[in-house]
Amino acid sequence: MPSAPNDPCPCRSGEQFAACCAPRLDGSGPAPTAAALMRSRYTAFAVGDTGYLLRSWDPRTRPATLELDPAQRWLFLEVLATEAGGPFDQAGVVEFRAHYRDAAGRAELHERSRFRRADGAWVYVDGDLLA
């Protein structure tokens, strides 16, 4: 977890953690867009917040439990494209690359993720892994 609210946010938005993903993770501010939710979910992976990951997952596709690999260190995020997912949309898609390091070395997760609104809040539905 960032050590102070003024630290850069792990999602690399350019904002301070307190003004970016912290309100999503602590429940004090909902994500206004699908991309903002995706960024906050990346940050949750980076800081090991499985509770937030499960809460922000669509109940229809959410796993019962989630275990993160403690040896996996998330390095940075690239948002490549978005489709819809704005403040007035009901669904959206975000394509991203999340770079990480684990016991095998550096790697990346390239995904096209689907999001929807559930009870007014954005939730992660599922995604397709891309090469």
Molecular structure report:
The protein has 131 residues and is of the alpha+beta class. It has helices at 22-25, 34-47, 50-55, and strands spanning 73-84, 91-102, 105-118, 121-129. The chain is globular. A 4-stranded antiparallel β-sheet has the order 1-2-3-4, with helices on one face. The longest helix is centred in the N-terminal third of the chain and has 14 residues, at 34-47. The chain has 3 helices and 4 strands; from the N terminus they run αααββββ. A hairpin with a 2-residue loop joins strand 2 (91-102) and strand 3 (105-118).
Measured as a percent range, the helix fraction is: 10-25%
Gross morphology: globular
Contiguous runs where pLDDT drops below 50 for at least 5 residues: none
Whole-number count of domains = 1
In terms of DSSP E residues, the strand content is: 35-45%
Main β sheet profile? 4 strands, antiparallel
Q: Please count the helical segments.
A: 3
Distance between the termini: 29 Å
User: Order of strands across the biggest sheet?
Assistant: 1-2-3-4
What would you report as the Rg, rounded to the nearest angstrom? 14 Å
The chain-level mean pLDDT equals: 95
Q: Write down the CATH topology.
A: Nuclear Transport Factor 2, Chain: A
The second-level CATH architecture is: Roll
Question: What is the CATH level 1 assignment?
Answer: Alpha Beta
Number of strands: 4
What class would the helix/strand composition place it in?
alpha+beta
